[in-house]
Structures are given as structure tokens and as C-alpha cells.
Amino acid sequence: MALKGAIPVAFGDVFPAGAFATKVEMVADFDASKGGSRVQARDKMTGLPMWAVTVTDPDPDARDTSAKVKVPAATEPVLPDALPGLPFRPVEFEGLTVTPYVNSSNRLAYSFKATGLRAPSGAPVKPAAKTG
Fold first, then answer.
1. The pTM of the whole model exceeds 0.90
2. Cβ-count burial 80-109 (b if 16+ within 10 Å, e if not)
3. I need a surface site. Which of 43, 63, 68, 128 has the fewest CB within 10 A?
4. What does the domain layout of the chain look like in residue ranges?
5. Residue 4: pLDDT band by 50, 70, 90 thresholds?
């Protein structure tokens, strides 16, 4: 099998109705954090500090309506501006990957990672075209 590690996916395949960012926080390295001191995790590929962007999925058919997307970056990623009059911050992720795993409840879960984030381009979010 040619798949090794994270699987690249199109943003629209994961979030066909878009995504709204609610917060950014550092990802803790639980092995290195000791005695009440939190150490920030680093990306294994780039060595950059890891940040978790919490998003809400507005898709009414979504199985899970909340997710965290990890983003390696030298500084805390800046979220796009909120929509006028609303607390929602539409966001799109660049270089999105997914890693499936079995969680502690023996259920299939997904870990998301992206190379960056940006404000949506204004065009509706659509899944990537299916091939084959």
C-alpha cells in the first residue's frame, strides 16, 4: 500500500459547508510537560511549534460539529476577521491532511493537520471533483 502517514484531502471534502474558527491554542507536549509547566509540542517534520485551531462545522449532515486542526507555525496563527455583526470567523485550511486512528473508546477518529489557514476566497466551498 502506498499510503504512509497523513492523507492529503481537499478542504471542501472535509468541510463542504465551510468552517468557522473559534479559537487558537498551543498544543501541549504531554511527555515534556512536567511539574505544572506546559511545554509546547513541535511538529515532527518541520520542528515548528504546534497550534490547534478549534472549528465549528455548520453542515447539518456533519457527524461531528466541532474539530481541531493542528497547524505548525513559528508564531500563533491569526484568525480571519469575524463576520460583521456575528462572532463567526470563516476559515479555510491550506495543505489539509487527515490521519485516521482508533481512539480510547475503540471508535474511528480523525486527526487533522494543515500547513496554514486563510479567510475564504468568497467562492462557495465545494468538494473536490471525484476521479475514477
1. no
2. eeeeeeeeebbbbbeebbeeeeeeeeeeee
3. 63
4. 7-118
5. confident
